[in-house]
Amino acid sequence: MPQVLPEPTLDVEQALADLNEFGLCLISDALDAATLGRAREAVYRAAADDRKRSREVKGFALDRNDHNQRVWNLLNRDPVFADLAEHPLAMRLVRETLGWPALLSNISGNITDPGATRGVLHADQIFVPEPWPERPQGINVAWCLDDFTRENGATEVVVGSHHWQRSPTEADANVPMIAVEAPAGSVLAFESRIWHRSGANTSADARRAGVFPFYTTTVYRTQENWFLSLDPGVRRYASETLLTLLAYKSEGFGLVYGESPQ
Asked: How many domains does one find in the chain?
C-alpha cells in the first residue's frame, strides 16, 4: 500500500484525528518567528558547546553514523526548551493522547549533517511488553527548527504501523517508508507505536535540526533521570505543569508519605 501522509493543518481537532488514523499529524506555523529563531540558535549553540568540550554524542544507537549529533537534556541548556516542553499545543496533544498527568521522558535535539545515513528503524514504545495495549503509551511532539526535507534527513515513517501493535524486526527492513517534509516552525507529532527513523542527509550543505520531547503515561520511568540531571535552577522556576511532567508532582511516579508529591 502506498504511504500517504496527512495534510498539514492549523486545526488541533483535525490533528488529533490524524494522529488516530495515521499515527502522526503535522501542524503548520506552530511557532512564531521569535521563538523559532531563539530555539534554533539555542540548539545549535548547545551542539557547538558539546563539540568544544569533546562531549558530543555521535554514533548514537539509533543513528550509527558520525554525521548525526544528539544533544541531551535540553532543559539545562536554555529556558526556551522548557517553553517547548510545556507549550500549550504540545500539552493539548499529550492530554488528549495519554491523559493527565503525564511525564516528560526526555527532551533532546537531533541534528543531521550532510553525509548522515539513515537511522535504525524503530518504534519508541520498546519499553512496553508486546502485544501492546490498544492505546499508545507515549507521544513525540517534534519541533522542526529547520525545514525538514527529503534531502536533508527528514524523519521517515511507516504510516499506519501504530495499528500493528509491535516493534519492527529485521524482517521488516524493506518496509515502505515516507519522508515527512515540513517547513521550519511546524510540529510533527507521532505516537509511540509508529515505526520511524532519521532520514539520510544527501544534501550538499543543508543541516536539519529538530527538538524531540517524548512524553509517556506515568507508569513508566523517564528515560532521563531528572532528579539527578536537572539543574536546580530549572526546578526552582518551573511551572506546576513542568513539575508534573518532570515527576516532582506526579502521583503515578511514586507517593511521598502516602500522598502525591508537592
From this structure: 1
